[in-house]
Amino acid sequence: MRPIWTGAIGFGLVNIPVKLYSATQSSNLSLDMLDKKDHSNIRFLRVNEKTGKEVTWENIVKGYKMDSKYVLLDDKDFEAASAKKTKTIEISDFVKADEISSIYYETPYYIEPDKSGTRAYELLRQGLTKTGKVGIATFVMRSKESLAVLRADKDVLVLNRIRFEEEIRDHNELTLPEKTTVKPAELQMAVSLINQLSGKFDISQYKDTYKDELLKLIHAKAKGQKIKAPEMKVVHSKTKDLMSQLKASLDVKRKKAS
Known about the structure:
alpha+beta, seven-stranded mixed barrel, Ku70, Chain: A, Domain 2, extended, two-stranded antiparallel ribbon, 6 helices
């Protein structure tokens, strides 16, 4: 893997030189965009809006528009704005992991220590593991400041970029049930079903089956087979059938287990 960011973790007065690596990779099928007429590949070009000519990456600069003119910026300008933030993952607080709602989580990165920072890296990792806490940090990547959670995951430190509060929409915009009553017997049955379906989380049990089914369809079409899409409709169940649905769900689970 190639690092996508190099800098240091600021942990009190401790400085830990580190590198960031992307912790995820896409599981999507690689699909090309084609012209419907002759199946030629579609290319996306960076075009000068005045001349209509393509512009190469090395000739593209960033600019901020002020009073109808652009102020041009380069990498040195971003660093000059805050050299510390562009080179440091600064931990400001430590909190319990379960205090952070999953809605805030975004992109994960693996953190690798530089040779000179291995002891401090291991000290922080073990400290987080022992306390069960995570660090709240800020850092700048690609000229954008990000908020992040730094946590210990087995034998590695992981940095999870999280969203700022203002980036989360207010759920009060949704139409949610207000005066819907739930009968005690229905709730007890629902709890029974939840308990019956409960188990220890194991990520390896979950596979991207849609990708596999799509790949089968692609192979079938390549052989000239006709594909008929099944009709699927959303069934709107009546509230009075809740108990029978819950009982049937429990019975299905019991039959599978036997």
